[in-house]
Specification:
Blueprint (H helix, E strand, L loop, with lengths): L10 E7 L6 E6 L2 E6 L4 H15 L2 E3 L10 H12 L16 H13 L6 E2 H7 L6 H9 L12 E2 L12 H10 L9
Parallel strand pairs: 1-4, 5-6
Antiparallel strand pairs: 1-2, 2-3
Helix pairs in contact: 3-5, 4-5
Length: about 190
Amino acid sequence: MDSTERPRGPHLEWTVVASDVGPLLLAATPEGLVRVEFHAGPDRLDRMTATLVSRLGADARRPAPGEEELLAEPVRQIAAYFAGSLRRFDLPLDWRLSSGFNRQVLQELDRSVPYGSVVGYGELAARAGQPGAAQAVGNAMGSNPLPLVVPCHRVVENDGGIGGFGGGVETKRQLLALEGVLPQPLF
């Protein structure tokens, strides 16, 4: 199927947007934003979209830039976030790529850790009702299908370390600097 042709059955719309941390793949279903992926260079797009199609059992469509339907608002809000004028994403989210404890933790993160703040893995585990599950919280952050929008970059080590990040530690540093948590690099 031509990627610009409208699918008739279950479908998702995807696009790549430029950002301060590199190209981002965004994908949405009629239910909401379903995937955000960092480092969406041309060499990775086929794999990224094939994985989504397989996991969701949906046809994928990439509209021409500016012709997005399902992604128009996510594209606008991502641009506003990087421009510094958006502090909280207000988008419908399709949570099908996350389940169980992982989804519970991600939803708690989305609800309780605002722009410009951070939380430790252990504290987030306690907020999600599972004190002592800091390592499981780390696994949940690593499986986050909606990074940036569901802000796993705001979860740090309890001892003050920055912790890991699926988009890379330097990307995490850049996002935390954008939000004023860390100083901007000098060079």
